[in-house]
Design a protein that fits this description.
The complex is a heterotrimer of chains A (about 550), B (about 400) and C (about 290).
Chain A: H1 3-9, H2 38-63, H3 67-85, H4 90-116, H5 129-139, E1 141-143, E2 149-157, E3 160-166, E4 172-176, E5 182-184, E6 187-189, E7 192-195, E8 200-201, H6 204-209, H7 211-216, E9 219-220, E10 229-232, E11 237-243, E12 245-248, E13 253-256, E14 262-265, E15 271-272, H8 290-297, H9 302-333, H10 342-349, H11 351-354, H12 357-367, H13 374-379, H14 391-418, H15 423-431, H16 436-464, H17 467-473, H18 493-502, H19 509-538
Antiparallel strand pairs in A: 1-11, 2-3, 2-8, 2-11, 3-4, 4-5, 6-7, 9-10, 10-11, 12-13, 13-14, 14-15
Chain B: H1 6-15, E1 43-49, H2 50-67, E2 70-76, H3 78-88, E3 97-101, H4 105-111, H5 128-133, E4 135-136, E5 139-140, E6 142-149, E7 151-155, H6 167-175, E8 183-185, H7 193-202, E9 208-210, E10 216-220, H8 224-239, H9 249-257, E11 263-266, H10 268-276, E12 281-284, E13 297-305, H11 312-322, H12 326-336, H13 343-348, H14 352-362, E14 365-366, H15 372-389, H16 395-411
Parallel strand pairs in B: 1-2, 1-3, 8-11, 13-14
Antiparallel strand pairs in B: 3-13, 4-5, 6-13, 7-11, 7-12, 9-10
Helix pairs in contact in B: 2-12, 8-15, 8-16, 15-16
Chain C: H1 2-10, H2 13-45, H3 65-70, H4 75-106, H5 112-122, H6 130-144, H7 153-161, H8 167-178, H9 181-189, H10 194-205, H11 207-222, H12 226-231, H13 240-248, H14 256-281
Classes of the chains: A alpha+beta (about 550), B alpha/beta (about 400), C mainly alpha (about 290).
Amino acid sequence: MTDQSTAQEVVPDDPTGTRPPRRRAPRGTTSHARSFSPGFIAKLILIGTVDALGVYGILSAWAVSQWGILAFLVLALVVANWAYFSRRMLPAKYLVPGLLFLVVYQLFAMGYTGYVAFTNYGDGHNSTKADAITQIAAQNERRVEGSPSLPLAVVQSGDELGFAVVTEDGDTQVGTAEQPFEDVDATVESGRITEVPGWEVLGFAQVAADQEAITSLRVPFSDDPSDGSVRTQDGSTGYVFRSALEYDAAADTFTDTDTGTVYTPGEGGNFVSPDGERLTPGWRVGVGFDNFTAMVTDSRMAGPFAQIFVWTFAFAFLSVITTFALGLFLAITFNDPRVRGRKVYRSLLILPYAFPGFLSALVWRGMLNERFGLINEVLLGGASIPWLSDPWLAKAAIIGVNLWLGFPYMFLICTGALQSIPHDMTEAARIDGAGRWRIFRSLTLPLLMVSVAPLLISSFAFNFNNFSLIYMLTGGGPNFVGTPYVVGHTDILISMVYSVAFESGTKQYGVASALSIVIFLIVGVISYLGFRRTRTLEEI
Amino acid sequence: MRRSIPALATTAVLALALAACSSSDSPSDATSDSPAADAAEGTLTMWVDDTRIDSMRPVVEAFSEESGVEVELVQKATGDIGPDFVTQVPTGEGPDIIVSAHDGLGEWVNNGVVAPIELGDKADAFADSAVQAMAYDGQTYGVPISIENIALVRNNALLADTPATTFDELVEQAKGAGTDFSVLIQQGEESDPYHLYPLQTSFGAPVFEQSADGSYTDTLALGGEAGHAYAAYLAKLGADRTLDLSVDGDKAKQAFLDGQAPYIVTGPWNTSAFQEAGMDISVLPVPSAGGQPAQPFVGVQGVFISAKSENPVLANEFVVNYLTTEEAQDALYEAGGRLPALTASADKVDDAVLQGFNEAGATGAPMPAIPAMSSVWSFWGATEAQIVGGQAADPAGAWDAMVQNIQDAIDG
Amino acid sequence: MARSTELHTAVRGRRWWSEIGWRHVVGVVMIAICLLPLLYVLSASLNPGGTLTGSNQLFRTISLENYTELGPRGYMNWAVNSLVVSSATAVGTVLMGAAAAYAFSRFRFRGRRSGLTTLLLVQMFPQMLAFVALFLLLLSLSEVFPAIGLNTQLGLICVYLGGALGVNTFLMYGFFNTVPREIDEAAKIDGASHAQIFWTIILRLVAPILAVVGLLSFISSYGEFIIAKVVLQRPERFTLALGLYNWASDERNARWGIFAAGAVLAAIPVVALFLFLQKYIVGGLTAGSVKG
């Protein structure tokens, strides 16, 4: 689906066009399909375009063997046509465009995370087994010590490729994959082989056209395989290489050519020797629930976990409350039409929202600097308050900076939502003698909550996972002293995941995914419960 | 994932895995000249960051003209090149070539995303530490293009010469200048092990043991008596405010720019700003604090080829045969102003500041590229911060706890 | 509206302070707090060689050098890209979100409640791996529909539209619920179809929230760079946020001055858009029609 199609797909389900027939139709009998109004024709054209794009997509997905996309497109086309041509699927007509995007871009990412959580994807297990085999072989192909670098030309005879080289003694030799080097009478001009009898010397352009074959060609140096073979990477210089590890495709094992150690593919996605030595890189394999159990069994995570868990809730909760309170207060303050210049006030109030968040966090970090920050040095007259290195002050600083960053969002939303509260109602209450606070508590706030409550929950969830703020402002610090993972007093669950999965040695996407799914379950359940409570508010 | 945002870059620098190792380039006598007699067709995709893309452009154009191979430069954020290389190469959609600091090499090798190359006797033309940095586990993976390390920078307007032979004497002399700060070493909430490393090595406590050929093993060497002595020294510098966690990178740079300190330990990335501001500066090695040579980490910018490049010959032609030429390295220097890794080009650099860094780096240690290094950074910085900040009452004890935690992390 | 002018003239003296004056005080204080950190950004943007927070001595150098450097670095191009991408995203989000909110608000169908709940929960999924997933997805899409694959702005817009339903739908849903059903009923009796009611009646009544959602969606896509950097790779296709991020990503070599200048200019469209939309957000259009 392209965006034009979906953005406009909403239009065509106005089946009767902008000039409606002035007749009252009994419900359910208005034929969407049979009234050939301009609107219906527009709808036909749009759906037709979508269908055409979809069919095009199906055909090209077929051509490039993208079966997943093909299946999805077929399904999406069926759903779309059914939704817009069926008479009954009213809600679907409004939901389909947005849902399509949601499914493609959001659910896919979720599903992928879920899949990764059950694999060992991460550093050292980055790709497929085939890639790993190629790479192990390539990394362990070592140049024979003391061997010369040989001026080389790629030669061809019929379909057969070979190398022509100038040896250390100045002789010229030719060999192929099957035929070790033997002397020939080639022409050498200024160190380069230009002609070989019986062979065509390939120029750079020809070499470039067949790179794969040339870089994988190995010409035995002599009849004795232990002498190694000649290969080239640039088509002009050859070196004698010997494999320290050789792959046996039939047995699916690597063998060390010096010690004879055999490495067999292990369960963990590595080639492993009998005494447990692993070759890198490995490949991606499924590991079942290992990533999930790992966090339970990792005693190193037990220590600060409880503290971080509590702080995560406190942080998310306080962030929502403070930003919402300030945003709402400001929205109400400037909702009074008698305030002159409120347009300017409002516009300047969203400035914190208009600057890149990481830039603001950097500036705040500088301003909170213990000795030289603006807050201590200028505003507090040279005080030395450890804003970022005292555990409690750092927490306060995080909440404060998040308030600065986040209130414009709440301010905007509240300003918008306030418009749904009829002015007459508050006016009537005022005439009845209700005070400002009373009006706010009994009238404005409950009405506002109808539209805003779900947003507060979602804001809670956002802050629950607000990794970037923590990371940019304090990096989780001040750190706990001596803990086996580098985590600190201001770390929240998601930044702890980051620290554990990415910063303690290797990057472990599998573990990170598993941890983040667990966090999702926690915050999801809490939000779900909170959401059910707001239901009572919402159903008027 | 929300990472590598510049503020994160502080951490990102720490989070990168670092490199060094042996390279067994045996002598050979063959000549290696360019085979590009006739033009080839093909396009190479090359990832390069914002600060290097402009200096790479003319070099790439010259190569295209000579060989007919187009090189498309794709701009990526500095901190993203390594991680994205690891995630994208397996899909087959990654770049052919990347330009990056060498410290991610271990991770790339372990993930099988970088292809080995053979420098042959070209290796001899480069600075030893630069070639060592391109090697991992006995195999070479990249062509070095420039070298960077930190050194001591002096504001000549405040102090004209440096008689000090130890770091303590240096601090004493600097205090004589009567400025707010003596010797600036940038810190931050997580301290800065990178900028403190010359002091640490001067106590004989390098992070990993190095084997005879210069390559790192994953045996930790920063503990023991030497480590304790360094930890105690850090605590002392923290107590007398020579080191101050409040002095972050921004503050240190600005203070030096404002003439508030006669010395700063920093790298070439800041000296250009000093010179643009019209300051007269000299660059010197950092004096030893613990009696042994103060070695900074040497970072090497290298060019690496993807293991799944569809154009391996073209990529090798460009990287191994073209970027190793004096002509290419000269051009990179002229456009980018970074010290070339090729000795012949570096010798031609007529810039006292860069030469100063070059001399200070001559004794330096390559940044370790072994993956174990990524376990080290975060513990290291956190512990140094606690020692400098005074939270760790027993510096030696805190240091031991750190060594233990790093060892646990390495053992997995 | 007439009432407010009436009141306006009536309020004086102490009453003015208690009813209106304090609002100005709040406004001024809040604006000072909003602007304070941004002064560092502005100061850095005017100082060619300085640091971002290295000194509290602001505005000691005033030079437009950083601003003039923006042009040659492709800034204008990025600005245009950003405006295109964010406008398209905002319009798409408003249309699809409003349609969905209408369906949830006005129709009663099976799965309505669970659908609403699911929409809310989906948004809470931690997106730690989203960038890997999206890269793979767009890579596959590139082969079938190159127009929405990797390195296309259309592809980026589509990814952003994936989030069109969600929090915004809820905001609109809540607002739709406050529009009395009698209005629909009356229109239905006049023979209007559900689509006509939606397009010609409801959407006008909920204009304030459409403007809010449009603005929120514009701002979030305008400042987004994490997905953008996965999708867009060629500098000429970058959005502003992505371009700026690239300048600032190298901690050591970052030129904060140019970055800050870029950020200052980038904030202008957002503020301008809000200025423009304010009349829809708080305008009197709906005031008369939405009555309980």
